[in-house]
Amino acid sequence: MLDVPAFVSAEDKKLAIPLLCWDIANPALEKRVHIHNDIQQLENLIVSHKWQLGINFKSLLIENHTLIVTNLLRQIIWTSQSFQTMTGYKSEDVVGLTLSFLQGPKTNLQTKMFIKEKLANFETLETRILNYRKNGESYWCSIKIFPIQNIQGAITHYIAVEKELN
Which PANTHER family would you find in this protein's record (predicted)? Predict the structure, then answer.
């Protein structure tokens, strides 16, 4: 048992309690905090926009998927914190941009046209695409994009679910 000083009493006597939880030293704690924050932020978006989100975003975040929400103009309004790990860009630096900023000279034009066509028709899509990190390094990314409806049934946003491929 490890004795950790809990507090000092009025008589300046140290009291000790056992340290039962090692979460404070767990390297995965920061990741769990990020996931928790992402879930809260996404739940706030769901409530404020009155979305009917038909995907289990919580399990996707836990499984290390990156989530990106855009408006109908395809401008980013929110990203999960794993977006920075995958791309090198902070969320606050990309709000207002379209995801096409991640594409580069070797990104397949047919894939780009496929995505554009599906989004124009408010259709769900799944593909893989060659994207580029902030440092210029390319990476393959699996991407699924879903239109998001509000409670009236109107499509108001898109959510992209992305995962880097090895």
Answer: PROTEIN TWIN LOV 1
Is the domain 27-164 a CATH 3.30.450.20 member? yes
What does the domain layout of the chain look like in residue ranges?
A: 27-164
Q: Tens of pLDDT along 7-34? A: 444 444 444 545 555 555 566 778 888 8
Q: pLDDT, tens digit, for every residue of 41-65?
A: 999 999 999 999 888 999 999 899 9
First to last CA, the chain: 43
Taking the C-alpha atoms of residue 42 and residue 47, their distance in angstroms, rounded to an integer, is 9
9, two tokens: 């009493």
User: The tokens of 132 are what?
Assistant: 């580029």
DSSP string over 21-45: --GGG-TTHHHHHHHHHHHHHHHHH
Q: Give the integer Cα–Cα distance in Å for 144 and 160.
A: 6
Secondary structure of residue 89 in the 3-state scheme:
coil
d(CA 122, CA 99): 16
